[in-house]
Amino acid sequence: MLIETLTSIAGLTTPKEQYEVVLVSQNKEISNTLSAFIKTVNLRVLYNDENNTISHSRNLGAGLATGEYLAFLDADVALASNWLDVMIDTLKTRDNTALVSAMQVNSPNAPPLERIRTALSNAELDVPVSFLPGRNLFLLKETFEAAGKFPEHLHTCEDYFFTDKVSKLGELFYTSQTQYIHIGEDKAYAPMYKKEIWRGQSNIASLKGRRIPLREWPSFVVPFAFTGGLLLALLAIIFSQPIVAIVMLVGALLPFTAYTWRLKRLVKQQVTWWHCSLFYLLYFPARALGTLIGVRGAVSTSSHK
């Protein structure tokens, strides 16, 4: 996937003399295939300890970057050829804009889960947003410094934390004028379930040091309301408490139905009701479990493997 990412960068319409690529790797060396990009895209390779967080790697790379702008990319995205031109133009011409990201598009023959993820990512387009995913960010280097860089104490949720800080300096803008494919997007439900457990482990830690807007609270509360409601309903049935079971079941199904209905509206006819329902049947319990693991301080990057 990293090869595809670098290939897409090499295909940008922006002249190669106008940008540099800083690759921060937690491996000990790079392959011959990767080495070939050193001349193709002005690639520099830095090596970081595998025990450090992704935020540490990003801050390390940003510290050695020489340009006026910074583009943070995950190693599994394929950029449209006009991506960099549009990023620069949007940041220069749009008033009070501190951070820009491009819209996500599906890969060819994308399965239902990838279509769901893409639709959720594109829920708000060509408007200021409250959060931008870390796989595709573009901003001035001085804005990056003013925002305090990426939070190196977090193993996950670092993009929530960082973009929240940047939003205090200007708007976050999600544009449809250019696109990218998330090559490594979730495509199967079982691996997604495991990754959501991992992603949820920094939920509590990400709350420290920032004000939590009201719109974010459902993302913390609903996974527990759904999962806890189902478990309590099951216990009530076991102990022959049908009224309690019904109340708990209704309490669990109300937010589940609301989220599933919203998702179906986003995906339209691309994805069935069943796949939308299955997504939240797995997503909510995984997030709740991950948050509980994170409370115990058991966050580990190895849990993502």
TrEMBL record:
Could you identify this protein by its name? Glycosyl transferase family A
GO cellular component term, pick one: plasma membrane
Organism, by scientific name, is: Alteromonas marina
Domain Glycosyltransferase 2-like positions = 2-110
> Domain of life, per the record?
Bacteria
Give the lineage. Bacteria, Pseudomonadati, Pseudomonadota, Gammaproteobacteria, Alteromonadales
UniProt keyword annotations, A-Z: Cell membrane, Glycosyltransferase, Membrane, Transferase, Transmembrane, Transmembrane helix
| Location(s) in or outside the cell | Cell membrane
Which residue windows are transmembrane per the record? 217-237, 243-261, 273-295
Q: Which InterPro entries match?
A: Glyco_trans_2-like (IPR001173), Nucleotide-diphossugar_trans (IPR029044)
A GO term, aspect molecular function: glycosyltransferase activity
What is the protein's major site of localization?
Answer: membrane
Q: Name one Pfam family in it.
A: Glycos_transf_2
